[in-house]
């Protein structure tokens, strides 16, 4: 698996959700291709220094969401059902990133209006054709 996964236990986001988001992002960006094998639960747990149950939970959720498929005795693979081009996955990644940013803004005490001003400024910076 060419994608490098990292986790931050201090982020406030459960580790299994961090794994899920990173694998979805890798699939959506084409870093992980359809049919590509993921590391075993044991190997990823060792690589990330986390409990194997955490990785297994992430893989189960990814399988439930039809991002990956698991074949007993063979391993887990990225599904070949067009997930890599799915706008739904891209939208989920965007939503998750915004959730993290908003949670952070709230935790540092920014008011709703301040967050909206910051968001509007960032939106104009990244999407200059955006008009209010």
What does this structure look like?
The protein has five helices and two strands, in the order αααββαα. With 132 residues, the chain is mainly alpha-helical. It folds into two domains: 69 residues, Winged helix-like DNA-binding domain superfamily/Winged helix DNA-binding domain (Arc Repressor Mutant, subunit A, Orthogonal Bundle); 40 residues. A two-stranded antiparallel sheet has the order 1-2. β1 and β2 form a beta hairpin. The termini are far apart. The mean pLDDT is 87.
What's the helix-strand series?
HHHEEHH
What oligomeric arrangement do these chains adopt? single chain
As residue ranges, the low-confidence spans are none
Tell me the helix content.
40-55%
Structural class: mainly alpha
CATH superfamily of the largest domain: Winged helix-like DNA-binding domain superfamily/Winged helix DNA-binding domain
Characteristic key phrases:
2 domains, two-stranded antiparallel sheet, Arc Repressor Mutant, subunit A, mainly alpha, 5 helices, 132 residues, 54% helix
Task: Furnish the topology, listing elements before pairings.
Blueprint: H1 15-28, H2 41-48, H3 52-64, E1 68-71, E2 75-78, H4 87-107, H5 112-126
Antiparallel strand pairs: 1-2
Helix pairs in contact: 1-3, 1-4, 2-3
Write a compact overview of the structure shown.
By secondary structure, the chain is mainly alpha-helical. Helix content is 54%, strand content 6%.
């Amino acid at each position: 698996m060419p994608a490098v996964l990292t986790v931050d236990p201090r982020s406030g986001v459960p580790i299994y959700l961090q794994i899920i988001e990173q694998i979805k992002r890798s699939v959506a960006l084409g870093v992980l291709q359809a049919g590509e094998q993921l590391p075993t639960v044991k190997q990823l747990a060792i690589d990330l220094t986390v409990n194997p149950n955490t990785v297994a939970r992430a893989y189960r959720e990814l399988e439930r969401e039809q991002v990956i498929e698991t074949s007993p005795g063979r391993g887990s693979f990225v599904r070949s059902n067009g997930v890599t081009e799915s706008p739904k996955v891209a939208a989920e990644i965007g939503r998750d990133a915004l959730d993290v940013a908003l949670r952070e803004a709230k935790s540092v005490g920014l008011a709703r209006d301040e967050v909206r001003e910051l968001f509007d400024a960032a939106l104009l910076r990244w999407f200059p054709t955006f008009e209010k």
